[in-house]
Amino acid sequence: MIHRKLLMATAIIAPVVITACSDMTAPKNEATSVNPAAEAAVTEITFIKWFTTFPAMPGNTSYGDGTFAGTILGRTAFDNGVIVKLQALYRVTDPSGSHSFAALIQGTQNIETATAVLNGVITEGWMVGARVHVTFQRITPCALAPIAPGLCFQGTIRIQ
Length: 160
Prior knowledge:
A hairpin with an 8-residue loop joins strand 4 (83-92) and strand 5 (101-110). The protein is globular. The protein has an 8-stranded antiparallel β-barrel. The model is unreliable at 1-38 (pLDDT under 50). It is mostly beta strands. The chain has one helix at 2-21; strands spanning 43-49, 56-61, 64-78, 83-92, 101-110, 115-125, 131-139, 152-159.
């Protein structure tokens, strides 16, 4: 008899519990929801650079000719010269004056793959304090390079 009453109670309660747990109209936990509008926009600026007198690097950006200037602040080779740790200061000049900035970056360059990845922060100008992610690759031939003819570096600066 008790077993029969327990079975009947389970049959009555189970649909109520299932309905309550699957209620799609219940409020959502906002802390775990993703709000695409709240995600930070990323600004991308393309560049091409080359060496004149080491450690100086002039170049062009998507803002136009002569809008890039860089200085290598540190260069250390590892792994038999395959991996190079770099630290640099990049300056980007926007001719309109509204998006000029300087960024201090550091990371590694792989000589074998001819690619580099650097990260840092904007230290002055537009978007001070914003994170910067830089990638570039060595390209040849490049008619822009007066020293080491044909050697340039082309990449993207991503500001977040």
